[in-house]
Amino acid sequence: MLIFEQSKAGRKDGPGKRKKKQGSAIPKNFLRKQSAGLPEVSELQAVRHYTRLSQKNFSIDTHFYPLGSCTMKYNPRACNSLAMLPGFLNRHPLSPDMFGQGVMACLYELQEMLKEVTGMNAVSLTPAAGAQGEFAGMAMIRAYHDAQGDTARTEVLVPDAAHGTNPASAVMCGYTVREIPTSSNGDVDVDELKKVVGPQTAGLMLTNPSTVGVFDRNIQEISSTVHKAGGLLYYDGANLNAILGKVRPGDMGFDVIHMNLHKTFSTPHGGGGPGAGPVGVSERLTPFLPVPMVAHDGDEYRWLTEKDCPQTIGRLSAFMGNTGVLLRAYVYARLLGKEGMIRVSEYSTLNANYMMAEMKKKGFDLAYPDRRATHEFIVTMKRQAKELGTNTMDFAKRLLDYGFHAPTTYFPLLIPECLLIEPTETEDKDTLDAFIDTMEKILKEAQENPEQLKDAPHTLPVRRLDDVRAARELDLAWKAE
Amino acid sequence: MLIFEQSKAGRKDGPGKRKKKQGSAIPKNFLRKQSAGLPEVSELQAVRHYTRLSQKNFSIDTHFYPLGSCTMKYNPRACNSLAMLPGFLNRHPLSPDMFGQGVMACLYELQEMLKEVTGMNAVSLTPAAGAQGEFAGMAMIRAYHDAQGDTARTEVLVPDAAHGTNPASAVMCGYTVREIPTSSNGDVDVDELKKVVGPQTAGLMLTNPSTVGVFDRNIQEISSTVHKAGGLLYYDGANLNAILGKVRPGDMGFDVIHMNLHKTFSTPHGGGGPGAGPVGVSERLTPFLPVPMVAHDGDEYRWLTEKDCPQTIGRLSAFMGNTGVLLRAYVYARLLGKEGMIRVSEYSTLNANYMMAEMKKKGFDLAYPDRRATHEFIVTMKRQAKELGTNTMDFAKRLLDYGFHAPTTYFPLLIPECLLIEPTETEDKDTLDAFIDTMEKILKEAQENPEQLKDAPHTLPVRRLDDVRAARELDLAWKAE
Amino acid sequence: MPFIPHTEKEVKEMLDAIGVSSIEDLFDEIPPELKAVSIDAVPSTQSEMDVSRLMMERAEEDGRQLSFIGAGAYEHHIPAAVWELTTRGEFYTAYTPYQAEASQGTLQLLYEYQTMMSRLNGLDVSNASLYDGASGLAEAVLMAVRANRKSKSKKILMPKTVHPHYRKTVEAIVNKQDIKLEILDYDATGGHLSPEQLPQSPGDFAALVIPQPNFFGVMEDVDMLTDWAHSHGALVIAVVNPIALALLQPPGEWGENGADIACGEGQPLGIPLSSGGPYYGFMCCKQALVRQMPGRIIGKTLDMDGKPGYTLTLQAREQHIRRSKATSNICTNQGLMITASTIHMAILGAHGLEEAAATSNENTNTLIDKLTALPGVEKVFERPVFHEAVLKFDTPLKDVLRALNAQNLIGGYSLEDEYPELDNALLVCATETKTQADIDTYVNHLERILSKQETVKCPVSPKI
Amino acid sequence: MPFIPHTEKEVKEMLDAIGVSSIEDLFDEIPPELKAVSIDAVPSTQSEMDVSRLMMERAEEDGRQLSFIGAGAYEHHIPAAVWELTTRGEFYTAYTPYQAEASQGTLQLLYEYQTMMSRLNGLDVSNASLYDGASGLAEAVLMAVRANRKSKSKKILMPKTVHPHYRKTVEAIVNKQDIKLEILDYDATGGHLSPEQLPQSPGDFAALVIPQPNFFGVMEDVDMLTDWAHSHGALVIAVVNPIALALLQPPGEWGENGADIACGEGQPLGIPLSSGGPYYGFMCCKQALVRQMPGRIIGKTLDMDGKPGYTLTLQAREQHIRRSKATSNICTNQGLMITASTIHMAILGAHGLEEAAATSNENTNTLIDKLTALPGVEKVFERPVFHEAVLKFDTPLKDVLRALNAQNLIGGYSLEDEYPELDNALLVCATETKTQADIDTYVNHLERILSKQETVKCPVSPKI
Ligand SMILES: Cc1ncc(COP(=O)(O)O)c(C=O)c1O
Ligand SMILES: Cc1ncc(COP(=O)(O)O)c(C=O)c1O
After folding, report:
1. What ipTM score was computed for the predicted complex, to two decimals?
2. Is the CB of A238 under 6 A from ligand 1?
3. What residues of C are in contact with residue D60 (Cβ under 8 Å)?
4. Cα dihedral angle (D12, D13, D16, D18), rounded to 10 degrees?
5. How confident is the model at residue A22 (pLDDT cuts 50, 70, 90)?
6. Do the bridges between strand B377-380 and strand B418-421 make them parallel or antiparallel, or are there none, so unpaired?
7. What is the pTM of this model?
């Protein structure tokens, strides 16, 4: 039942009527004629409704959630409660610096820590998510070329394995996108790269470890190829979790990088967001960083704005991006410390490689059987789809019945019928084993009783939903019958 | 799965071992030989385990919960968050008064408000729950008689409808208990009362509105009967919700009263507690109130202790009872204000009488069909039990399947096969109607397919549990196999 | 150690299963030269207890002032239930609802949100959030350029009365696609976009942006502006305050045909100030434009048994399907903020929002009246305001603000940097959270400061 | 209006269904003379916003000092997850689990709690909470009198080293049943119950109470005391600190046969100080005594399908069944506190508790060493302490404490009122929440105060 269906006209002005002030100082012609039609429910009704709704979600706090590329690891509760201290929540974004030294100290130290773990020269925290970080990064690349008077560079190279945000972000920066194929071993096809790189190349956007779950062994060659052609190297940091404290994008030769703090730094995904997508840059791109940033002048912290950074690509949001998310990431970074950060990559990699090895033993096909997994790996169900008629989506939906969130399905696009599995470092071995056993069981079901998969899920609040109908018979807002 | 079953030895001293300090300054002979054997789980495991456990509960925030005598109404969330402000949580109970003026102001004002709504002369907030309030009340009655040198009063009168805590509390105060029968119309049998009251009578413990859901119309006669015999009148305030702002125990002639703030003042029951059971007294009992209390001397608040109250019955807990609960009740009282308090009794009474009328129309038997309901009422299933073989417990368990918490069953003891139904004022009519319709539906099931009731519940995490086995084959703590 | 559950025994078993002898072996595909990493500048791990204390001390320094700034972020009362529910693990730690059947909680809530938002804005459809108000406006501009079939222009008319940070953000985001913002000045008396400020022969342009209320708090003539833009074949993008919408005419009803796109900052609907974020941008539009709308959209559908359910829909607009041809690059959005706003709106209802809006309006008018009663303080613009207004001082504003700060009071937002023509001008705001006593505190401090009385230097008990 | 969902239309429908014309009619069985009620002294309804502000201002005044008091309530770090989970609506707003099938969350948790507690105490069984440590000891005394089959005595030996408030509480609760507390003095040098303090010919007595550590922080000779009591046919009631139990010998292993009943204050296990409550009393005992134990007890059982589940058990001891013959009158207990403690123990594990205990012990020893290095401050008792100790000052203690208070520091708990023989004696405590800097702050302030230096009067930034 929707909250609107629990609404009763007059509930709020029933017993003990609310004082209704109709903004008497506002001239009539500005006013709306009808009330906005929000639901009229009691506080208990709202609390009960949304509590019960929440229970219909899978989440890290309730389920194993090995969603590849998304790094669904434990979101420490302290990060939430400390970021929500009244002093932080109540601070207005335009409040004078003297009343923001606490939050600015945290942001400044976060900038410094992110510089260190990425090996970059400077960091701006303002992008609101990975995609906005990508936009900022590509905008800086463009600003750099423009500053050099090098306006012929109109093309950005993006491997076919890349996340959809990469080409979309490049286009928003006015670039055309050229796809680079992935070779059969999972690395970027360097020969193809060499063929297409040239004076029109503004840069290459690379995810390394890549979205196919491997570390590109030719990274140095790729890097020098692009650099030699005068292009810049963009690092999509969505998979930073796999190498935190082990290898640094700066050391690989990247000029600009975004980080998804809502992945590697464990800020919660909140059913879709918010995230934070700080960007780090090499020295030559530093003047172009988006504002605001935080500076530390002797004793005091202060905001760096357009005035301080005349070459900045500008502002990406009205204020400082997702400050509350940044505070959560800061707390997480302090809790881990350098020792903990190294463990993140080690144990996420251990978990992924263990699962990969075991899944293989259970008869699943790996996309790259000869490669190490990074913090994630790919299983392809092409064979099963062909032999049994059950596709990846069927497996995914059946997993839900067994209390596991499904891994990422059908991404990256280049691998047919794929499952991208990312266990993360915070899951224990028993949970991984239970998942593997369940996959084996579902495989058996697929052989013996494929309908059980095709009709899945069976035990959730709804059965399989009709996506086609949703798009065809658009119903995007409730209307009273 | 129990949290212990997720434990793995060495989990906490695995990677990045915790520094284990074995209290080196403490001589060996005082130390335990083996670690305490608590579970070793990660924070994620604990969070996931208890989040999922919580989802197995019915609660006000998720279900209609018409548990008679328990007043399961909406617990406003602001009461929780404001009582948990760091300043309140961090204050040590023995911290000097100068560092406790905030909490003491709240407690003082709560004392004053409770005096006003009960019509009593003074209030002490320290009892931790209703039963401790009863103990305090009876102890004051005893202290009063003792102070009069009136030591022959060894007997306390308690109606048979009373809650079990009443006789148990009287006994803890060294009294013997004599039961008074309830007449067929639900009021106390005044003739019987008159027969047994006498010079041995220390007092009468009365719940009014009573636990059978009616207001005792003879309250003035009862009061004068007991008073004339030299006894005192104790008021069990569990049902204060029904008369808040309408009638006051003090005006009915009661000498001492306890309130269950976790009922009438909507502090949460928390799966069993904590509650708070403040006591209010008439003038003659005031010197005996339990300590501590809060006094207001001009500008400052201060604690009243044994020094200030030499005749006090003493202390009932190490510090100040359940202060955090008292703060929640205080916030609730301020949110309601006097206007809101009156509405509490009005709308809880409206809801109960509406349900009673409708249940009757659906063919259910009322225990007291000729009486008004107070904020609760009783249905008896004696007829159904006899005719259909389905008892009250079967109805109760079947209700769970339909997403309703069952009303109180088999209490009060004097009414066979009873359901004590208390909707509270915060539930809306649609919810009441849905409950009534469901009861009608179950009644039909009882006629057509009684097994559906006897085997209920069907949709909960467990089917009907074997209580007899639980008591016979005691298993009160987990042991590793 | 923090958040790693492995026992040594398990690690050994796992390494054996993989067939390597150490975790380090798992990194053997990384070129060894790259691995000589040190991250020593990162501080060592600290216990939750220590970090908690640090954060409490830092939070203590911030956000405890009596503040009269608005300027795009507004202090409103948020019922306690809102964030207690929003931070429930099931909402807080879920991902984007890719597996719809396992995400009906979030999905139904988002559908309810879309319904609430489209009602508030008087438009057909709503998306499920963008990053914030400013970047949302940039997306609206891109959308308008894509969507306007009548115009091939990449020109947008942008009034100067739009929040200066919004204008900068839009500029930063859209300028790479050759979109040009033509800035329209405001009426010096009214503080609004009067007919005189509209270009006589505007030529082809894709859209006109209309703020309501505008950055100065002033109410614009939205009907006239909307009709004017439509008469030139342009679309209308409304930038609105959602609390104001409880009282004001919704964009969908502006002029003859209504605004085409409405967007704005969602923060006033239950989101804490929090130094600027996370907030969220909302966006609504007419049904005809829905396929050009950026961001996630939730649709109602049926399951295999014919039971209603909710799912992400119109994904073919999005980057994960359309890649370089997507309507936007947005992926992660501000979902949790929507969760809070939806619960906030459900608890307040229309009445609650109206009350907050009306009280804010009254308080601001009271504040203005009292402040302008002081000598040397004047109202700059004549037109009615919603809950902000511009005041002009005849003394150096910086000194005045600093003197107020010393009293733990934030007087407002100085317009000097962004509107050099408005020197010594201050934008003030008093929402429903301000009591009469708060307003008097401001007035009294200011009176003393302006009269050059010695201010008492003892620490004033801070506002929480 | 607050929390009433009825519309006027519904009220009318409901009144019609009942057959009355107004709500007032529903109160027609109440004698009219009684109804002339006014509750005008209760303030008018206030909005959540206004009450929030009031409460924030009041909370601001309290609990923000650097405090070195223990004396029965201890500041320990509580992981953030504990209360975020505990206040989930499903735990927070459930009643006592009378309908077991609809309460498996709470019931399983309580069963886990019982397991944890019985392990910590080294005893067979645990109940599911009593009101607090002091009233729990009173219940233990009543239980011992009931349970001791060898003794008909109603005499209890109660050392003076038991918390004075506990002794008062026990006295207030048990004296109506003719139970007599015989107070045993302490050893002036050791601060403990030495063999000399034990009565030579104690006669028949029901039980000896043994605190560990005792109120002075001192460790008692629990083995000797337990065996002595048992040799006289008495039961042993242990009063223990649950954090200390992480390190110390559990009551179930004291002496030859172990204590019979263990009880104590559960607050140190994840419960905030909160001015004294809500806390909870825990109680464990030997299997043989379980039917005499007061309070709720949860048992594991099977459902109709043979699946394990949890339920309230042994209810035949309780007041709702046994009425005047019940083992106790307790009904509502402290369930939510148990929820917090169980989660707290699960997150910390034994190692975490050990660390908290050991660090508290170290910090207290450091504090004692540094304070007693100041002239005029001496340790009173010789024996080893857990995390508290008694110091003696050669100047008037009241003045010293007041001077410390002026620095926003609480120096400890003065023993003057409760132990007149210990004049100018202070009980101090430093748990793991105290840093070396905190300890030095104390030492430095005290040094200045004792040396009669002028204390600087500027406001010190408060500890949070
Ligand atoms: C590889 C990769 N790149 C980029 C992104 C986009 O980041 P965001 O969702 O934070 O905008 C994602 C997010 O899923 C990703 O997995
Ligand atoms: C009528 C009545 N009296 C007394 C009590 C005991 O109160 P408490 O549970 O707060 O100890 C109850 C509680 O259920 C009750 O319903």
Report:
1. 0.97
2. yes
3. 461, 464
4. -110
5. low
6. antiparallel
7. 0.97
